[in-house]
Amino acid sequence: MNKSVQGRPLRVALALPQGPPFIERMLRGFAEFAREHGAWSFTRKPEGFDISLGWLRAWQGDGALVMITNREDARIAESLPYPVVNLASHIDNLTIPTVTVDNREVGRLAAEHLLERGFKRLGYYGVPAFLYSRLRCEGFRRAIEKARGACEVLDAVAGRRTL
């Protein structure tokens, strides 16, 4: 995204859940980048953990940083008239540019951490409905198998949070 558009700050939507510490760290990073690289104006809808991208249909801006966690939000993001960057790895086969961690590497590092401490029989607990969990499991299992250890996988069912 450019520094500004026709002399005004770039208007950037942040369609991200509130609360998780890693998201708050990302937000601080976005703010720091904006301070260092030009005038950005951020818009964020105050919602809880599950945030829909539906509000972006009516939003008039220059781009959006989003977390796509379901196919409906993927369709919304694909239809928006401005650039969108996805920051989640919940679903696969997205056409939206995505920036996220190397989830296979996360799994590998977790396995190596446990193997270095002498564990030989390990387990992975994940939610296979989410791409990031499948990738982390793959990295975890490969590292365990490479070390000739044993790995069991417990698959959890994805669910919605309720209060």
Topology, pairings included?
Blueprint: E1 4-5, E2 8-15, H1 21-37, E3 40-44, E4 63-66, H2 71-79, E5 84-86, H3 103-116, E6 121-126, H4 131-146, E7 150-155
Parallel strand pairs: 2-3, 2-4, 4-5, 6-7
Antiparallel strand pairs: 1-2
Helix pairs in contact: 3-4
- Label the CATH architecture of the largest domain: 3-Layer(aba) Sandwich
Total domains = 2
Name of the level-1 CATH class of the largest domain: Alpha Beta
Specify Rg, calculated over alpha carbons.
Answer: 19 Å
Task: Kindly report how far apart the N and C termini lie.
Answer: 38 Å
* Beta strands, count: 7
Strand content: 15-25%
The CATH topology of the largest domain comes to Rossmann fold
Q: Regions with pLDDT < 50 over 5+ consecutive residues?
A: none
The CATH homologous superfamily name of the largest domain equals Response regulator
Would you tell me the overall average pLDDT?
89
Q: In which range does the helix fraction lie?
A: 25-40%
> Any idea what the shape is?
elongated
Helix/strand class: alpha/beta
Q: What is the chain-wise order of helices and strands?
A: EEHEEHEHEHE
Alpha plus pi helix count: 4
Q: How many strands, which pairing sense, and closed or not: the largest β-sheet?
A: 5 strands, mixed
Can I get a quick summary?
The chain is of the alpha/beta class and 163 residues long.
Features:
single chain; alpha/beta; Rossmann fold; 2 domains; two-stranded parallel ribbon; 4 helices; 7 strands
Please describe what this structure looks like:
The chain has helices at 21-37, 71-79, 103-116, 131-146, and strands at 4-5, 8-15, 40-44, 63-66, 84-86, 121-126, 150-155. The mean pLDDT is 89. α3 (103-116) runs parallel beside α4 (131-146). It contains four helices and seven strands, in the order ββαββαβαβαβ. It is an alpha/beta fold and 163 residues long. The strands form two sheets. Strands 1, 2, 3, 4 and 5 form a five-stranded mixed beta sheet that branches. β4, α2 and β5 (84-86) form a beta-alpha-beta unit.
